[in-house]
Amino acid sequence: MRRLNDKMRAIASASRRNVTVEWGTMNSEFHQTLAGLARNVIVDEQYRNLSFGFQHFQLAQAANVEFTSLSSLVEQHDGMIDALEKGGKPLLLRLLSPHINNLSLSD
């Protein structure tokens, strides 16, 4: 997960404007791995049912949804990875909610 997040960090720091597909594919892989670590059939199934992979970024753009900065998302991923490495399940759970709620509707 750390290596994947490092690749995402490189994308976030690049000055390219159209990174949606590349970023979304890696972000989907990150979250699928994170959900898989729960080793819980229900969590895994719910993730697969609710996740569109990278398509959610494209759909969000079409619906005028704004994401927080990609760099901020990478920093949040770093916190989740750190919590996993330290065995900090309560910390991981506290970090997940704000990460999930990074979307805001634009006018």
Task: Offer a quick outline of the entry.
This protein has 107 residues and is mostly helical. The protein has helices at residues 2-13, 20-36, 41-50, 55-62, 70-85, 89-100; strands at 65-66, 104-105.
Describe the structure.
The structure is a single chain. This protein is mainly alpha-helical and 107 residues long. It is 70% helix and 4% strand. It has helices spanning 2-13, 20-36, 41-50, 55-62, 70-85, 89-100; strands at 65-66, 104-105. A two-stranded antiparallel sheet has the order 1-2. Helix 1 (2-13) packs antiparallel against helix 2, helix 1 (2-13) packs antiparallel against helix 5 (70-85) and helix 2 packs antiparallel against helix 3 (41-50). The radius of gyration is 14 Å and the shape is globular. The relative contact order is 0.15.
Strand order in the sheet with the most strands: 1-2
Uncertain residue ranges = none
Order of helices and strands: HHHHEHHE
Global morphology: globular
The overall pLDDT, averaged over residues, is 81
Q: What's the helix count?
A: 6
Rg, Cα atoms, Å: 14 Å
Structural class computed from helices and strand pairing: mainly alpha
Largest sheet, in brief, is: 2 strands, antiparallel
- Proportion of beta-strand residues: under 5%
Can you give the helix content as a percent range?
Answer: over 70%
Q: What separation lies between the terminal Cα atoms?
A: 35 Å
Tally the beta strands.
Answer: 2
